[in-house]
Amino acid sequence: MTRYRLDISYDGTGFHGWAGQPGLRTVQGELETWIGRVLRLPTPPELTCAGRTDAGVHARGQVAHLDLDLPDPDAVVATLQRRLRAALPEDVTVRRVSIAPDGFDARFAAIWRHYVYRLADADLDPLDRFTTARVKQPLDLELLNRAAQPLLGLHDFVAFCRFREGATSVRELQQLAAHRLPDGRVELHVRADAFCHSMVRSLTGALVEVATGRRSPDWLAGLLAADQRSGEVPVMPAHGLVLEQVGYPSDDELAARVSQAKARRSLED
Question: Where does the sequence pass through the membrane (predicted)?
Answer without folding.
Answer: none
